Amino acid sequence: MSMHPKYxxxxxxxxxxxxxxxxxxxxxxxxxxxxxxxxxxxxVLLNVGKPTITGLALALGFExxxxxxxxxxxxxxxYTIKRARLKIENSYEQDIRNSGLVPTGSIFALxxxxxxxxxxxxxxxxxxxxxxxxxxxxxxxxxxxxLEEIAKASN
Length: 155
Description:
Order of helices and strands: HEEEEHHHHEEH
Number of strands: 6
Helix content: 40-55%
Largest sheet: 2 strands, antiparallel
Oligomer: single chain
Distance between the termini: 54 Å
Shape: flat
Strand order of the largest sheet: 1-4
Structural class: mainly alpha
C-alpha cells in the first residue's frame, strides 16, 4: 500500500500546488480601517509565509521529501513538481537579493538546491574550432585576473 497520494492528473496536483503557494503569502497586521500597522516605519508581519520544500511535500500529502522526489520521477508530473521546486528556490534567491543582512538560512537552502559559493574551474573544458575540431581553452584570451584564479584553483 502506497503512503503518498495518487494524483490522477497534472491539473489535480497543480491545484494543490497553487493552493500551497497562495497559503504562503505573507500576512500583515491590519488596523480596524484595513491599514497596515507599522513598527519603525515597516508593516508588522504576522506570518512570513515562506514556501519550503517540506511545506510543499506536506501540502501535497507526502510523508517525506523523498516521496515527493520519487513522484517527480513520474513523467506526467515531473514538470509541475520541478516548477514548484523552482518557485521555492527563487524565493530563497530573492531573500538574498532583497535582504540588507546576510540571509544565512537562504544561503544554506540554496546550497541544498545545488548552488555553490566558491569558484569552481573545470580544466577539462574544450571548444570546437572553425573546422569542427575539438580544441582546449585559448588561455591567451583570458585576463590576468582569470589566469591568477586558475593558477590558485590548480594548487
